[in-house]
Amino acid sequence: MRKHQQLRAWQQAMDLVVLIYSMTANFPLTEQCGLTSQMQRAAVSVASNIAEGAARGSLSELETQCQIAQRLGYTADISALEMAINALFSQLGGLIKHLKASL
Fold first, then answer.
1. How far apart, in Å, do the first and last CA atoms of the chain sit?
2. Which of 11, 39, 55, 83 is deepest in the core (most CB within 10 A)?
3. Of 95, 89, 88, 65, which Cα lies nearest the Cα of 2?
């Protein structure tokens, strides 16, 4: 479990995303491109920004968004994505160490 996933704020933000998507599912179709979209994007942004700020930037943000997609039932299995993200986290860690050592 990554550092940001242990944060209560991130956990609550992830729960909020599910609640917002559930609530906006009942909005009129005329709001699909308006209020519905804006509220959903804002909810995803909260969780994503917590992850991005607490861990390795956009990769943590992407990981959060994959987990949101899974929570919303858009995809059943994100294990291949998680493996790719974990591999990239490792590579980034090595790159950061290398760059710091060469300074």
1. 31
2. 55
3. 89
Return the DSSP state at 25: T
Cα 25 to Cα 28, 32, 34, 76: the distances in Å are 8, 9, 13, 20
pTM of the prediction?
A: 0.86
Question: How far apart are the C-alpha atoms of 89 and 93, rounded to whole Å?
Answer: 6
The mean per-residue pLDDT over the stretch 33-53 comes to: 96
Q: Which tens digit of pLDDT belongs to each residue from 45-88?
A: 999 999 999 876 899 999 999 999 999 999 999 999 999 999 99
Residue 32: give the domain boundaries. 3-101
- Total of domains in the chain: 1
Which segments of the chain are extended strands (E)? Answer: none
User: Which DSSP letter does residue 7 get?
Assistant: -
Q: The tokens of 101 are what?
A: 């050592």
Query: How many angstroms separate the CA atoms of 14 and 33, rounded?
Result: 22
